[in-house]
Amino acid sequence: MNDETERTYSEDASQRELQVLYQISRTLDASLDMEEILNPVLGILSRHMNMNYGTITILQRKTGDIFIESSYGLPPAQARKVRYRLGEGVTGHVILTGEPAIIPRKSESPLILDKTKRGKAPDTSFICVPIKVGQDVAGALSVDTPYQDEDELQSDARFLSVVASMLAQAVRLRRQAQEEHEKLSEENERLRLELKERFRPANIIGNSHEMQIVYDQIAKIAKSSSTALIVGETGTGKELVASAIHYNSDRAKKPFVKVHCAALPENIIESELFGHCKGAFTGAVAERKGRFEMADGGTLFLDEIGELSLPVQVKLLRALQEREIERVGDSNPIKINIRLVAATNKNLPEMIAQGKFREDLYYRLNVFPIFVPPLRLRKTDIVLLAEHFLKTYSEQQRKGINKMSPQIIERLMAYKWPGNVRELENCIERAVLVADGESLEPMHLPPALQMAQNASPADSESAGSLEGQVNALEKAIIEEALRNCKGNVAAAARNLKSTPRIISYKISRLGILIP
Description:
By secondary structure, the protein is an alpha/beta fold. Helix content is 49%, strand content 14%. It folds into three domains: 171 residues, GAF domain (Beta-Lactamase), CATH 3.30.450.40; 175 residues, P-loop containing nucleotide triphosphate hydrolases (Rossmann fold); 135 residues, Helicase, Ruva Protein, domain 3 (Orthogonal Bundle).
């Protein structure tokens, strides 16, 4: 080849390269989404360089892993399996050093690991160039081509370096998006574990026999997908039980969606539960998902379900039976996968008799009933709960209150607690708010509790003393044992690891009424 011919060939090659770079530039300008541009870019390179294979790899800075983001000539499933470490193989070495690598014959290089199973043919060359963002190496661009001499390989390497510099911005954005996604995933996992820890049964305060039954029921139902109906008076902690069921189930990583049926107006409850289409009613300016769809894969908690109107009960029953819903204003069914947990403080069988609640819905909900006992039936838990709330609100309000006087404990044990645990919590929060010093005193309690006194002589005897506190606690324990054994003194004595004679004596001395 004479000088004139060589110059003409070189000019033609430069023109072709410029055309290729122009095509790549237009492709990169078409979208900021890396997934939409990398495969077309590799396709352009394959036509220009006659390459057999091509890959674009990205470095995960946190883990040091290098993975294939896009490939040409490789099955996607195969490309997804490949991982390199920094310094491993040609690709790992290029990303580590930031310097391009040229392998004239793949069969002759020990650096070729062939993790992609492309083979190490002697008639194949390999070029790998770094993709740099400033001085930071974000990834690499590599190609397999038919064997070429040294000059042609050097020329291709320079050309690929230009292409790599054009890809740098897209790779940077992609890596940034991936790192943000990983950060969000880690944060979601941390919050999920935090919620699971917070709502595990061990964190529901109470050691009474009644609460042990509740814990056993939570453990039994948590691993299933059965519907649960939680029954109990207002303030007993039904929502805590529902949370414990969800966060100890296989659905814990999925949404836990709560709906307070009594708090939603009747005219919007259907839309809230099932969603609506645009224009379904006045004010429906956009399509909206309902709580059933939001809870898909997880748990839907319907609190105070007895407040639902009969028409909504019909739709709820259909959703539970068919496992599908229809948005308001739409007739297309939407499949759902949820576990329903419902709660109520009402007597649903009584409501059925009054025609206010559907019997078929009740039986659909009442698959696994859980009764949360009122605080007056678990008096042995009162001091435990009070100490827990004292610690919580003392820290929250930055006060150094760390104990309760014997007199305040006596009043807490004597009170009937119509508002249950919620009333106790509010009472302790108020006491901490108004108290000064290191101890809560009766004067810090609401007036109703300040006047609370035990009815029996034993309760008033040595009031505020150690003996008085022991008597009050002993009375509560024996009363609870008698209730559990339906008034059978001998059975109560066995449960308390005592004798009928001793228990009978204490019943008489403490003024306990046998149920």
